[in-house]
Amino acid sequence: MTRPDDPCPWGETLHEPFPPSILFDDGVIRVVHQPGSGRGSLLTFADLTFRPDGTTCWGSSAARRLGYDLIGVVGYDTHWYPAASIEAAAPFIRPLVEATTVAYGYSMGGHAALRHARRLGVDYALAVAPQFSIDPAVMPEDLRYSGLFRPKIHRGLRISHEELPRVPFMIADPYFPQDSAQARAIVAAGSPDPGDRHLRWVHTPFVEHWAIHLIRSSWALEETLENVLADDPAGLRRVLRRSRRTPVWHRVVAREAMVRGRERHAQRLWPAAIALGCPETLRHADERELAPDMIVELLGRGGTGIASRAWPLYGGVLSGDLEALRKVGHALIAHGFPAEAAPFFRAALLLAPADGTLWHALSTALVNEPAESLAVALEGRERVPGYAPLAMQAGYLLSAQGELDAAEAQLRDALRLDRRLPGLHAALSHLLANAGRLDEALVSARQAYEAAPGDVSLALQLARLQRALGHAAAAIRSFRAVLRLEPANEEAARELALLESSGTLTKLAGRLGSSLDTLLGRGIPTAAPAPRDPGR
């Protein structure tokens, strides 16, 4: 999200500024003094993106609008304001400090406001979304700044109890994990008892790292500073509530609602954000970033309403993002909404027409429209002839429509492309059995079962074919294998009992024939031997 360079609104009338001057510059920090009209006094510390530029400093526009005297400290680098440079600048700053001066900063500047206000003779501090430390060893919960960490100057960096000013205020989001962890560490550094150096944390829920936007307007900043000086956290809380009528607040809270899966709440917030001036492009960017995970999460929770709304609400903004379209489409299919998934895969195919997985997914999504599903599978075969699962899909669909010859051609082509494709031998076996070609079907069934011996349906198909072809001994072994995998399988138990009883009768007939032959001196033919199942 876009960060403000200065916490003030646009278009407000500025008080005619008095000429500013540079008080101190050691190449690490620059200190600028901008005299005001005596209405108040600020000591500001710039955030990590602000750099010295003449007599410009962070908060200068705000101070001019309010008529405040300003002492602005600006860093040359992302160093989090080393104490040595602050101490060197102190003789130039302290003479300008008043009893009502407030040290004020955002992020890196908020850290400095809390850490250095006291050593500069300032009793009040207002820190917005500050860091306790950027040392990963000190704050492992927040690694956002680990790329800026330099052991020589940052190792052990932290705010100590002794450094906090008499009245320290902090504004931060308690629900944003990194800022919340930093804030809790700062609270722990303060006094546990109300009074001197007890940190006043005023919560700003769901604004993430952008609480600074709540005090961008002159009236909000002025009333905020008045409440800090009055040591009135409740009053500051009321100011922050009133200042939520900003596009940034509505946008940030809409984002948070999406992250938390509160899709309808986000949809109510966006129109207000747009009406207050938030560009539509930012809404689209946020929805493209957050909608896929939100939809997947809602589907996982059992939310059915999002399935029908997913494409109408988010299809447009996701249409240029292949992976987002793929992710949402597959999630919809997985949760039982194939028809709702279809437009996502159609949009994805516009971006990647040579992706066989997308043709396969779209054909699957059209499962309730068999003719269209088949047409998509066949078109996909023409576009991506080397993708075996699509050939298998086309074979299934052709077989279902009774086009057995065309189906067999597709399945055999799939075998040519990938003989190890799961389910392929089984599909061909079923097709051949339906065509009455049982011997060929048996070969494919055996190959399917050998590839997946733990699959009950494959073992059952093999046993059925063996029984149909009269391979009783092999069928008995296969039905027993089914029962080992699924002891409650009724068909296997029934067929096994019949085969075993038939085998017993055959043996009895054979024994009776042998006895008569002995008694009568002639042979009596008994049941003919069952044909042998080749290879078993």
Alpha carbon gap, first and last residue: 68 Å
What percent strand? 5-15%
Estimated helix fraction: 40-55%
Radius of gyration: 38 Å
Largest sheet: 8 strands, mixed
Given as residue ranges, the uncertain stretches (5+ residues, pLDDT < 50) are 1-14, 515-536
Please provide the ordered H/E string of secondary-structure elements: EEEHEHEHEHEHEHHHHHHHHHHHHHHHHH
Q: Widest sheet: strand order?
A: 1-2-4-3-5-6-7-8
Mean pLDDT: 87
Structural class: alpha/beta
Instruction: Compute the number of strand runs.
Output: 8
Our count of helices gives 22
- Shape, principal axes of CA atoms: elongated
Protein name: Alpha/beta hydrolase
Keywords: TPR repeat
InterPro entries: AB_hydrolase_fold, TPR-like_helical_dom_sf, TPR_rpt
TPR repeats: 456-489
What does this 3D model show about the protein?
- With 536 residues, the chain is α/β, with parallel strands linked by helices.
- The chain has helices at 60-66, 83-93, 108-116, 151-154, 177-189, 218-229, 233-242, 247-259, 263-275, 280-300, 305-318, 322-334, 338-351, 356-365, 370-383, 388-400, 404-417, 424-434, 438-451, 456-468, 472-485, 490-520; strands at residues 21-25, 29-34, 41-45, 69-75, 102-106, 124-128, 167-172, 200-203.
- The protein has an 8-stranded mixed β-sheet with strand order 1-2-4-3-5-6-7-8, sandwiched between helices.
- Helix 16 runs antiparallel to helix 17, helix 17 (404-417) runs antiparallel to helix 18 (424-434) and helix 18 (424-434) packs antiparallel against helix 19 (438-451).
- It starts with 20 loop residues before the first strand and ends in a 16-residue tail after the last helix.
- 43% of the residues are buried.
- Mean pLDDT is 87; it is low at 1-14 and 515-536.
- It comes from Roseomonas elaeocarpi.
- It holds the Pfam family TPR_8.
